[in-house]
Amino acid sequence: MAKSPEVEHPNKALGWAARDTSGILSPFNFSRRATGEKDVKFKVLYCGICHSDLHMILNEWGMTTYPLIPGHEIVGVVTEVGSKVQKFKVGDKVGVGCMVGACLSCDSCTNHLENYCHKTILTYGAKYYDGTSTYGGYSDTMVSDEHFVIRIPENLPLDSSAPLLCAGITVYSPLRFYGLDKPGMHVGVVGLGGLGHVAVKFAKAMGVKVTVISSSPNKKKEAMEHLGADSFLVSKDQDQMQAAQGIMDGIIDTVSAQHPLLPLIGLLKTQGKLVMVGAPEKPLELPVFPLIMARKLLGGSCIGGMKETQEMMDFAAKHNIKADIEVISIDYVNTAMERLQKADVRYRFVIDIANTLKSNA
């Protein structure tokens, strides 16, 4: 008979979990494993709220098992390391992103692409090697194999660097992989939310000309004056979109709602690349003819491997890139989820775990 989450491991822990498809989160007592020889244990100080957390607590992707403690933008300070840990010591600023395990021997893993391993273990809502459930960062403590721990550079604030562990790497990786990181290139960013606003910052730091493409005309001032975009297109304005035909080397599409691809493909130069990083619940319609006639590419990208994630974090530190955040208390998390559904956040919620998650919650 399986042990309850509270006693299956030796170290008591506290988090906030969803118990059913209502998605309502509330205090949840569980346990973390003892620190193994290659493990890093850290006190969670902040955890970002990703849109995928919302999908998961509501089981909108049909893969949720309850109880579920979300959170894969987790940062804190190391409190214990295993005897064979080489990269970290007590007191280090660290983070854990979307995964905590992989086979480490397949082609993907040996090429530093653990995120594409068929045996990737997600930070929450998955089964760990020992058969127990993984629980995320809406909790007071975290234990992870050091391979999946990221060092947070000293000059980055922990709260606003937390979203980089998911949102940051999600846009950084395709900019690098698809070669959209060359100075002087012209890249479009579709959607100015949690992913999009960070995409603008990374692309500008790479020396790229950036156009924000949004359905909301009122975001123009924010995009250009605050985030530094070079231009702005209203996706529903046919005249604007027509005038911009064939001017972009690539587009990073961060939108997770239904939207037409044909107008975006039209913005690309010959051999331009449209890269999807948003995850709509239903399939999008794909017009093939405009791809064929100009050798354009439609691709996708999902987070990044551990080596690239560390590279991204170091790049962010060098260029002072951090997410624009709203810090909240843990007891505000259900309200935050309601606001997230309405896209009412600028641009990422981050939970102040250390100061608001209390054992008497």
From TrEMBL:
<comment type="function">
    <text>Oxidizes mannitol to mannose. Provides the initial step by which translocated mannitol is committed to central metabolism and, by regulating mannitol pool size, is important in regulating salt tolerance at the cellular level.</text>
</comment>
<dbReference type="GO" id="GO:0009809">
    <property type="term" value="P:lignin biosynthetic process"/>
</dbReference>
<dbReference type="InterPro" id="IPR002328">
    <property type="entry name" value="ADH_Zn_CS"/>
</dbReference>
<dbReference type="GO" id="GO:0046029">
    <property type="term" value="F:mannitol dehydrogenase activity"/>
</dbReference>
<dbReference type="InterPro" id="IPR036291">
    <property type="entry name" value="NAD(P)-bd_dom_sf"/>
</dbReference>
<keyword id="KW-0560">Oxidoreductase</keyword>
<feature type="domain" description="Enoyl reductase (ER)">
    <location>
        <begin position="23"/>
        <end position="351"/>
    </location>
</feature>
<dbReference type="InterPro" id="IPR047109">
    <property type="entry name" value="CAD-like"/>
</dbReference>
<keyword id="KW-0479">Metal-binding</keyword>
<keyword id="KW-0520">NAD</keyword>
<comment type="similarity">
    <text>Belongs to the zinc-containing alcohol dehydrogenase family.</text>
</comment>
<dbReference type="InterPro" id="IPR013154">
    <property type="entry name" value="ADH-like_N"/>
</dbReference>
<dbReference type="Pfam" id="PF00107">
    <property type="entry name" value="ADH_zinc_N"/>
</dbReference>
<keyword id="KW-0862">Zinc</keyword>
<dbReference type="InterPro" id="IPR013149">
    <property type="entry name" value="ADH-like_C"/>
</dbReference>
<dbReference type="InterPro" id="IPR011032">
    <property type="entry name" value="GroES-like_sf"/>
</dbReference>
<dbReference type="Pfam" id="PF08240">
    <property type="entry name" value="ADH_N"/>
</dbReference>
<dbReference type="GO" id="GO:0008270">
    <property type="term" value="F:zinc ion binding"/>
</dbReference>
<protein>
    <recommendedName>
        <fullName>mannitol dehydrogenase</fullName>
        <ecNumber>1.1.1.255</ecNumber>
    </recommendedName>
</protein>
<dbReference type="InterPro" id="IPR020843">
    <property type="entry name" value="ER"/>
</dbReference>
